[in-house]
Queue: 4 jobs
Job 1
Amino acid sequence: MINFQPIEPKDREIFERFYPFKTIQNSESSFANLCAYSFIYNGQWAIIDNCLVTRIHFEKNSHICYHYPLGNGDKDKIIEKLINYSKQNNEKMSVICETKDRKPCFEHNFNIKEERDFFDYLYLREDLESLKGKKLQPKRNHINKFNAKYKWDYIEINAKNYHPCLSLLNTWQEKAIEKNPELLAEYEKEKKVIEYLFTNFDALDLKAGAIKVEEKIIAFTIGSKINNETFDIHIEKADRDFEGAFAIINQEFAKRLDSSYKYINREEDLGIEGLRKAKLSYYPIKLIEKYIATLK
């Protein structure tokens, strides 16, 4: 019998055992994301045939979406077991997969739909750190203007000093809600996620940094490990009244990230035009394609 359990911060050690097998780089597979969004998606995990299998609920106890198994077991056999498990429990079953995961068991048994709005943007860490080249000249211009106008400091954020970041978040959200009141519910969810990340900072093994101008936090970012080579930026906020604030926190955080991380995943754009334009402006080396394979 398969025994799925809720994903909680205390399970981090179990997840870390599977990092040597983890080549996927999508943000949904991040341990911190699975924990932080559990109030929406009820993240769960189980060990099946020496593989870690995680899943979320698109509809609670009705439509279950699995992530591709991690480990050295037979993945096709595990997918078959999950198919049988879903049928026995009368659950609608889907799997989030990348192009390389579209194996015959998906082609034959699943309807596969591309989800462009959820493609992740993947960058080389050294590109975000150096901002070299003609294409990234506009980013360097923003940073030069910021440096010329402000005297600033970069500070490491941790479990004890994060509270000023929440003050910036409140200010940012107030302005965002004035501009897009229809997104109030989404902003409230995001705030709950950010508060969860900060209050579980050490347990989730998070890293964060902030830019301070005249003792005021004007930008911050927070992220965590996806696999041994890829770091995930969960949240990035900045006061738009400070031109170049987003560019400076992006670069300064990348500079201080451990060099063992070759890649930085800046997550999806959710189909938001401005966000898509901003992410593309950093010229990702790859868009991590996402497909939802739903059992026929």
Job 2
Amino acid sequence: MSDYEDAEQVEKLKAFWDENGKLLISAVVLSTAGLFGWNWWKGEQRAYAEGASQVFEQAVDAAQASDLTMLVSHHSTLSTDFPDSPYVTQAGLRLAGLYMQRGETESAETTLRDVLARERGNLLEPVVASRLARVLSYRGDAAQALEVLDSVGDEGTYAPLLAETRGDVQVALGNTEAARAAFESALTATGQSQLIDVRLVEMKLADLGAAPVVATEAETP
């Protein structure tokens, strides 16, 4: 290659760099920044999840020790510092359970209402609704308990659980036929049989004078 051709190639390289150099540098910088940002975000997500898990473990320990003060504190921390964590709901359910153990039924209702509002449209909505309905029925407000159950679709995974709860509420209202129908539905509904005690539901039916109902295979533990 001649000196002229060498000089021409150098000039072309200079022209290319003048035109595209800044763009190439920006691309490298943005690529590096993007990788750093992704790693930072993943690290933050991991730290968030680990932090929520640690607080939840403390909440579980407090619940097992029946330490209401500490459980309230840990639940508050989860709600404030980790609002997007599913542990908020889990801690709330434990808090409501402890309130019930202590006979503080109004606090249990308030807690479950807050949890239900949080879980609307989510997977655990039927579970929370069932527990709230039982608390309301226990407090003598079975009619409102039915309203809570009516606000949740009774099809799918949790159908047996919701049907049994509905049956118990109907018993509290003195509606024998409606209770019988609900218990029968609990035994024949398609869902997770582990969510109900089949033999206990059969006993409830027997107490109402109903003929035995054979649970489907899907419901048999």
Job 3
Amino acid sequence: MKTTIIFILFVLLSFTGWSQGDVPTSKPLKIEVANKVDESGKKETGTALKIPSVIKEQPEINMKDSRAPVKMLPDKKLVQAGHNMKIDPKIKTRNAKEGSKDFFPNQNLGEIKSNGKFVGVVCRDHEYVDGDRVKIFLNNEVADPNILLTGAFKGVNLDLKKGFNQIDFVALNEGSSSPNTAQIDVYDDQGQLIYSNKWLLSTGSKATLVITKE
């Protein structure tokens, strides 16, 4: 009799435990704010993903100087246009002598006015690209010692002082096809074209432009 009672109790306890274990228990969902507060009291913004920057060198932009260019590459990777241009050594460069019919003397490019802080002066070989080079002076001071004239415009920005500003372009050579030829364009500090002309010079001759600032 005792054995029967113990067996019945054992079955009842087993059934009760199995019933309770079969019922799933609920667990409250923990929801946290998107921006947590760190130990210093500042909120952490942004996503949890920490994505490293793939740009190691940021472009340098100087907003105070409107003439400063945006540098997308380090200076050591930038090269001057025409830097690797070579003139065939079999072709002799011609330098006409003063007094000959092929000699091109100094040239007066005229006078213009500009009240801006500076002007941009660019030039290019508008005829046969043959290795012409020029030196640029501003008020008898060297602004660029050696510009190789290619088919594309290149030049310098020149600060203007009140009164007369004399710009001289001295022909350093005549290339392989005489004379030294170039087209010159001048832009004001707003980027507007204010002057355009051309020159024909022999080696040593200069083209002079005067800019007056009131």
Job 4
Amino acid sequence: MPNVPTACRTKGCGGYAADRGLCQECLKNEKPPERVSKFDRRKEWKHLYRKSRWRNHVQPAVLRRDPICRICSHNPSTVADHIRDHRGDETLFFDFKNLQGVCEPCHDNKTGTEHGIGREKNLPPKPTAVPEPGSIPPDVDFTKLLNLDPKKKKE
């Protein structure tokens, strides 16, 4: 049974539908669907990040206060991060006690983890603990370090 041609669903178009209810001409002119990122969960309060108070005063002050990332203590801080998620609360948004300077990889990981989308691959290497000069860790075995066999006698 052959398909019966149907009218294009675009208002004012007199063409016949070819695909998804649209004629060939309307398919060419159709805009791609707007992509909404599932990772952008702050649309309701995105306007707060555009305020001049944030851009010109608060954010630069936090980055001056914390020049090194407060999470990894390795990279320079490039992002003013909210310690507690503000969820649009302006008082919490602009509170200096709730802000810290962090590097972008640490910020992306922290924010992603809080929102269930964390990535570990962009994290900078964690600094290794350096013992204080003159201190000896209690678990060091010097016989292994010096390649000495305690059972073997000196000749």
